[in-house]
Amino acid sequence: MIGTLQCVVLDCPDVLELAEFYQRLLGGEINRSGTPWALGDGWATLHDAAGAPVLAFQGVADHRPPVWGAPEQQFHLDVQVDDLDRAHDAVLALGAWQLDDGGVDRAWRTYADPAGHPFCLVRHAAH
Fold it and tell me: CATH code for 7-59?
């Protein structure tokens, strides 16, 4: 092993807007004090109480969102949920938009956050 994952950084035009979107989606604390993160204009962090990797948000004035399904798309986030329909309504109310409905029998649906980054809601598989 060479290292450990410190955080995932998403470029966006408005760091607090996107941090608040993901806070409402995932929970956690924005810009937690006492952490070794350089905070300030153009930068925000979201810390999960469960110790998951930190999401960080970096302001980019000329941000261009990725295009879902295009060759230049590089990655997306998967968010596990118990009820796809309820989560669908909730993320749309937060400002996300749907990119792919997933079909009736598929266990996930694809959306874009307010800055255009793709993410999927994935139905929690019962054990």
Answer: 3.30.720
pLDDT digits (tens, 9 = 90+) for 53-66: 789 898 988 888 88
Give residue 21's pLDDT band: very low, low, confident or very high (50, 70, 90).
very high
Burial 44-81 (b: 16+ CB within 10 A, else e): bbbbeeeeeebbbbebeeebeebeeeeeeeeebbeeeb
Compute the C-alpha angle 120/111/126, nearest 5°.
Answer: 30
Q: Would you list the domain boundaries of the chain?
A: 7-59, 77-123
Q: Tens digit of pLDDT for each residue in 84-99?
A: 899 999 999 999 999 9
User: Is 77-123 assigned to CATH 3.10.180.10?
Assistant: yes
Q: CA 97 to CA 107: how far, in whole Å?
A: 18
